[in-house]
Amino acid sequence: WVLGRHKLATSIVFFFCLSDVSCNSVEQKIYVELNNTVPCVRLLNATHQIGCQSSISGDTGVIHVLESEADLEWPLSKGPNPPYMVLLESSLFTRSIMMKMKNESNRVAGVAVVVPNTSPPEFSPHTTCPNENTGVYSDNYGPNLAHCNTTVWNPRGNGLSYEEFDFPVFSLKEDNETEFIKQCYLDHNRAVNGSAPQYPLCAMQLFSHMHAVTNTPTCMRRNDINFSINPEMVCDPLGDYNVWGSIRPYNDTVFGHKENESVVIAAARLDSRAFFWEVSTGAEGSVSGFVTLLAAAQALREVTHAAPPTRNILFAFFQGETFDYIGSSRMVYDMENGKFVIDLDNIHSVLEIGQVAVHSGTNLFLHSDPVSRRNNTVNDEVREELFSSFFVPLTWPNVSQPLPPSSLQRFLRAQPIPGIVLADHESAFNNRYYESFYDNAANLNLTYPSDLSPEEQLEFVTDTAKSLTDVATVVARALYKQAGGDESLVNTIKADPKIVTQMLYGFLVSSNNSWFQAVMAPELKNILKPSPPEYYVGVAMSSTPTRLVQYLLANLTGACLFVHYGAGIPPHSHSLFLSQMYSYLWVQGIVPPNSTERDSFCVRASVRLTKAVSPAFELGEYASKDYSTWTESRWKFIKARIFLVASRDLEMLTLGVGVAVLFTSLLVTYFISTKADVLFSSTREPASAAY
Ligand SMILES: *[C@@H]1O[C@H](CO)[C@@H](O)[C@H](O)[C@H]1NC(C)=O
Ligand SMILES: *[C@@H]1O[C@H](CO)[C@@H](O)[C@H](O)[C@H]1NC(C)=O
Ligand SMILES: *[C@@H]1O[C@H](CO)[C@@H](O)[C@H](O)[C@H]1NC(C)=O
Ligand SMILES: *[C@@H]1O[C@H](CO)[C@@H](O)[C@H](O)[C@H]1NC(C)=O
Ligand SMILES: *[C@@H]1O[C@H](CO)[C@@H](O)[C@H](O)[C@H]1NC(C)=O
Ligand SMILES: *[C@@H]1O[C@H](CO)[C@@H](O)[C@H](O)[C@H]1NC(C)=O
Ligand SMILES: *[C@@H]1O[C@H](CO)[C@@H](O)[C@H](O)[C@H]1NC(C)=O
Ligand SMILES: *[C@@H]1O[C@H](CO)[C@@H](O)[C@H](O)[C@H]1NC(C)=O
Ligand SMILES: *[C@@H]1O[C@H](CO)[C@@H](O)[C@H](O)[C@H]1NC(C)=O
Ligand SMILES: *[C@@H]1O[C@H](CO)[C@@H](O)[C@H](O)[C@H]1NC(C)=O
Ligand SMILES: *[C@@H]1O[C@H](CO)[C@@H](O)[C@H](O)[C@H]1NC(C)=O
Ligand SMILES: *[C@@H]1O[C@H](CO)[C@@H](O)[C@H](O)[C@H]1NC(C)=O
């Protein structure tokens, strides 16, 4: 066979040189790998599959650079060389264009979107009514509020993230790589005066084949087939860990209802998503909220030690909320089933921090649930207590409006609990880039003077940090008052702008900074990157944001112990030790000025991680209507490359010649092996016959 292949290859080269295509085109067929690409991948829920995929051997098409919507005519009907690989500027990455291509998917091999460094005026590939089927509003609960009937929260949403495309869609960074592709297009593919361009043409091949199909029940069934028959998993549930911590620690071996225990829950979400896999930056969508909550937790450390409030305060950071409230639904499920340190009856109230990218002159809004507020008990508590806990001009939106998409909805689904959601929008979101890759540092106006070094930027208190500090102060004071703290001390509670600015820098600019290095465990230092972390929940079960928030919450609420080893405290080789009451985290610490060694130390904190995997997978109800059923397909590899293709006719001819040569060599081989004893009469070893 080696002989046969060699002959095939030689004859193809031979053929190219004979034909009027220059021998050069064989050399040009060499592939150029594209390095800065991000695919859109397939996700599945109980009933649908969304996202994108290529065929198993990758999809290849002739590159067409789209210049306007009208220009779609060429790839979709007029162009003579389908299928086309359409290269889009992000301004053309619209629902109308994508749906037209989806409709003609036999002529579209794939799409590559060039992501620019500057943001468009607005863009949200999410739905207009996020998590509409898994919140609290339904036919049984506020039916007139369900399905965003009264308020469309994300009116800019074009829903592209929830569409299914049966061709691959990749993003490309705007840099010399895209220039290289465009040059290849201009040199080879451009239609001159509407006439067909000449071969060879510049083509692109995208590989993103997805193993899972149809929906979650189907792919979970395939996962469950015995390993010997099917050694490959095809999909995994989306999930991670929730991070939580409390002012007073709980004995982590005692679950369920606690007598005489009343807890105020302060919550925020950790995750976000974007159209493309793992590029979500969630600045306003989630970072603004959880940074505020972390800063509020820090602001409460002193006062809650000096004058503990009568109620406990539990800080909860939920993962996977984007995908039908994975984290909060799991915590509520655990509380209902006696698998958490408290249960729902222990909850006094919930204060959730939503999107809070406030700028000067704008208000914050307190959202509450009009349905449970109709119940007088809950109404009184929300109005009198929660509202009066705030100290700055805050506004109630119109009462007939439902809660925005929020974790609180999952608590209300289980029980009428008083609660409010703090956000920067009165009705529809202010965020112009909800769940998109443009919801980044620039969306929060996070800018630094250009002459600062990274370390100076880390310390520089931006205006964004100042305003979030104010919000954190308000939240901390409200929580303290809400928890029954000493009213005379409330005004002493202040969030620290330096900590807020450092967190914004770490979460939105570069997680590899001296502060994050100091608070992390030695073996986790590699997750710090000179870029912001990705906030997509994923399937790996320990994403960077979870770890960062775990260690930061420990640093901001815990206590430093300069302990001796032994006595149950770990040596720094394994740096997390869980006692019944506390987590002990060994952290790197800073490098002192006149030293090269880090001053490692141990932090004792009440910070814990609990699973944020949808109860649907716990219960094996893969078609659940109550819980998130999102899974992510597995794939073998993701790759993109460009190369020049010869014409299809030429390729067919080449193939034909190749096949002819193959058969000839087979015949020759057959002839030689049957006549071997004649031809090679001296060597009679039996093995020689087995070619
Ligand atoms: C899809 O294509 C069909 C015919 O090919 C056309 O009738 C229909 O309007 C198209 N739909 C959209 C959304 O473009
Ligand atoms: C919204 O709810 C009201 C009251 O139930 C109903 O009359 C109306 O048709 C609903 N609107 C939509 C768009 O569903
Ligand atoms: C699954 O996702 C699709 C696409 O977003 C949606 O239309 C459908 O309602 C979802 N199914 C369930 C059970 O939530
Ligand atoms: C793009 O730029 C980088 C760095 O400037 C360089 O290493 C790379 O070779 C360039 N690629 C192309 C295709 O020009
Ligand atoms: C991608 O990386 C490979 C190997 O580093 C390099 O050969 C290739 O030129 C790069 N592609 C582009 C378009 O820069
Ligand atoms: C394209 O058309 C224009 C005017 O119709 C003509 O001047 C030009 O030479 C044409 N270009 C080519 C390459 O045929
Ligand atoms: C799958 O494996 C289990 C245990 O490994 C065995 O009991 C069962 O019979 C197997 N089922 C099939 C269909 O092979
Ligand atoms: C935690 O609870 C367990 C079980 O009730 C008990 O044995 C243990 O002493 C408690 N630990 C602490 C530190 O109170
Ligand atoms: C109001 O909520 C409280 C607390 O959950 C509950 O005990 C009571 O039955 C509710 N009242 C009405 C009228 O629904
Ligand atoms: C950012 O700055 C622009 C213009 O200066 C302003 O319109 C916008 O409201 C600011 N956004 C935030 C979140 O501060
Ligand atoms: C938190 O981090 C800072 C800076 O590294 C450090 O000075 C402080 O001691 C840490 N606090 C705790 C409780 O770990
Ligand atoms: C570092 O310098 C300070 C002040 O110069 C000194 O007090 C301290 O002992 C030095 N530490 C070490 C480890 O040399």
Automatic annotation (TrEMBL):
InterPro entries: Ncstrn_small, Nicastrin. Its main location: membrane. Residues 39-212 form the Nicastrin small lobe domain. One of its GO terms (cellular component) is plasma membrane. The keyword Transmembrane applies. This is Nicastrin. The keyword DNA repair does not apply.
